[in-house]
Amino acid sequence: MTTTDSNQTRQRIFGAAQSIIARKGFSAVGLNEVLNAAGVPKGSFYHYFASKDAFGTALLEHYFETYFADMDRIFQDPATSAHDALMRYWQLWISNQTCQVECGKCLAVKLGAEVADLSEPMRLALRRGTAQIVERLEAAISRGVEEGTVTIVATPAQLALRLYALWLGASVMTKITRTPDSFEEALQQTQHLLGNQ
């Protein structure tokens, strides 16, 4: 098997796994279910990953790479102000978390509480990934301050962390209540914290 074939197979496994794990969580999903969905022979899993833990870590790293690319497209659009880009990001967050079909829900939200106490490598992958999300939010906020489209009281770093924590909490509450109320509140708070235009 060539390196290209191996990478393509890993991508198929990641694609199948993300969809299943976004619904069921990590612990509830068996490797056979993922491999069947990916069309990969059951006995070949350990050719691609050393363990389920290593697979989970690689899945999170793959997920975050795609997530960062999506964030960069939003925040680096020269035709959009930083304020509008930030608000677009949060609107897309709501759409992603409230869709009723398979739509690649956020694995940081889904797995954060579940695996942080079970797998140190996966916890560290989540920590690295979420830190880079906060860094991108900070950069967008800083750009908004420079443009004059964002008015803040805290530092960009403090506000980025506060907003990310707000939206993680809203996502969990939305799962619990099954209403959009927490997202509506988070959106209002975000508009207030960024300064109304």
UniProtKB/TrEMBL annotation:
Protein name per Swiss-Prot or TrEMBL: TetR family transcriptional regulator
Native source species: Halopseudomonas phragmitis
Keywords: DNA-binding, Transcription, Transcription regulation
SUPFAM superfamilies in UniProt: Homeodomain-like (SSF46689), Tetracyclin repressor-like, C-terminal domain (SSF48498)
Any one GO molecular-function label of the UniProt entry: DNA binding
DNA-binding region boundaries: 30-49
InterPro entries: Homeodomain-like_sf, HTH_TetR, Tet_transcr_reg_TetR-rel_C_sf, TetR_C
Pfam family, one: TetR_C_13
Coiled coil: none
Record domain HTH tetR-type: where: 7-67
